[in-house]
Design a protein that fits this description.
The protein has about 150 residues and is mainly α. The protein has six helices and two strands. Helix 2 crosses helix 3.
Length: about 150
Amino acid sequence: MISLTGEYALRAMARVAQLEPGQYVLVRDIGKELDIPAGYLGKVMLTLTRAGLLESQRGRNGGFRLSKPARAIKLYDILSAAEPVKKYESCLLGQKICCDETACPIHFEWKAARGKVVDLLKETPLTSLAEHRSHLKPADLIPRTKKPRAARK
C-alpha cells in the first residue's frame, strides 16, 4: 500500500527525528545507515523540504534537520508529501466510479479499512517511529525486489 518512496520518507524522517535538536545530518550518512540509495534519498529529502517538514543547509556543517518538533509531524504529513495519497481513496479494483451508489464488490469493506489506515496515519506522530531506532535498521526490513522508478536505469 505504501510505495517504496513513502517507506524511504518515513524511515529517513524517523532517523532525522532521532537527532539532537538543531543538529543536521547528511543524506549520504542516512542512506548508508538505512541502506537507501543516496541519490534517490536526496530527491525524497528535497521533496520533504519543499513540503516544509525539513530544513536544509548547505556547507560544511549542513545537511537536513526537522523544521518542527517530531511530535507535531504526523505520518500522513510525510506520506502526503512523498507520494499521492489519493490512492487511499480510490477503488481497490481500479474502477473509475466507485461510490456507495455504484459500489464494486469490495467497496464497503475497503472503505472501512482505508478509513482506519488513514486515521492511523493522521493520528500517529513521527515520535512513534523515532523512539524505536532498532526498527530502522535495514537488516530488520523485508527485502525489496523492485527498485524505485527514479532509481532504475
